[in-house]
Amino acid sequence: MSATERASPREMGRLRWSGLGWKALPPLSVVVLALLVWEYLIPRGIVPGVKAQYLGTPSGVWAAGVELMNEGYGGHSLFAHVRASLFRTATGFAIAACIGVPLGIVLGYNKRAGAFLLPIFGFLRPIPALAFIPIVVIWFGIGEFAKVFVIFMTAFLYVLLGSVSGVRSVPNDYFRLGRTYHLSTFTTLFRVVLPSALPEIFVSLRTAMALSWAVVVASELIAAQVGLGYLIQSASQVYAINKVYVGVALIGLVGVTIDMVFLVIERRMLHWVGR
After folding, report:
1. pLDDT grade for 6, boundaries at 50, 70 and 90
2. pTM
3. C-alpha torsion 223→228→234→237, nearest 10
4. Burial status of residue 90 (CB atoms within 10 A of its CB: 0-12, 13-18, 19 or more)
């Protein structure tokens, strides 16, 4: 019997945490080194073509973060900016998911309908969200609906085409089995197609959510008065670079948190995948 097999559960836990610590050491060392260089060397003007005061420092970013936490920005608290961006993202994504998944399943199942509509959606998907902004402003003005619509368009196209791909990846034997048991079209879609297509649909939802959170910055260029995109844009106009970094860091942190939540939901709902 090996030493690992003889170890108690508590000792196994310590060994596991020790292994994780050693794995985390290299990336942490790189982060610490980068922060030290940024704090002490970059302010001395070693980056050509950029003034040192426009590059900020880690200590300055920390001070700006504390200031934003205590005083807010633009008449709103920092939490209000995060909440506004999350609300716009969640609203646009939820509408896109509610429309895109059912429509994608139908277009993937009905190839005749897909032949008419999918080329149009496939043409629109590569177009970046920024290209839609002038059109959306002309159509809907500069209110909240315009901001949510930009997010909706981005998420909808990915969810729709991902759902179509998921349905079309279902093996033909599953459809033959449904016809053998004389299942209705609805039952076939709900009991046969959907469970098989769910893994790919979840991938498209996760991608669409990440893109929705990224696009919220672009959507808040439409005359927003609150939100992380507004904070970043407004702070950049007055060269408050440290506050810009805080806004960017918050977008990254919230984005990682959203992705982790999606992973947990995916693992619980699709627990059979890989088994």
Report:
1. low
2. 0.79
3. -120
4. middle
